[in-house]
Amino acid sequence: MSNSEPSNEEVGERIDRLEMRLTFQDDTIETLNQTITAQWREIDALKRQIARLVEQLEDAQSNAEGPRNEPPPHY
After folding, report:
1. Long-range contacts at 46-49 (CB < 8 A, ≥ 24 apart)
2. 6 contacts 14 by C-beta, under 8 angstroms
3. Residues 14-73: tens digit of each pLDDT
4. pLDDT at residue 4 in the model
5. Is residue 1 scored above 60 in pLDDT?
6. How far is CA 66 from the centre of its chain?
7. Which of 2, 17, 48, 60 has a 20 to 30 Å separation from 72 between CA atoms?
8. How far is CA 40 from CA 3, 7, 52, in A?
């Protein structure tokens, strides 16, 4: 065997390091996936809340007393 070829021990160590990196990356991906899923749920809930508030505001404006979009009396 020439000096340029890695030994079986070196190959085994490289494989071990790669497996550890893969495990870490899998854990990171799963954590990111859970975070993104939670954020989408929160975004959906906030969108629904905004829609309800817009509807309430429109109802309040349509039920408001007094003239709308008219200039004040001093004009």
Report:
1. none
2. yes
3. 999 999 999 999 999 999 999 999 999 999 999 999 999 999 999 998 888 766 667 777
4. 83
5. no
6. 44
7. 60
8. 54, 49, 18
Q: Report which residue type is found at 7.
A: S
Residue with tokens 């404006």: 61
Going from the C-alpha of 66 to that of each of 20, 21, 60, 73, the distances in angstroms are 71, 69, 13, 13
Angle at 32 between CA 24 and CA 37, to 5 degrees: 150
SS (H, E, C) the chain: CCCCCCCHHHHHHHHHHHHHHHHHHHHHHHHHHHHHHHHHHHHHHHHHHHHHHHHHHHHHHHCCCCCCCCCCCCC
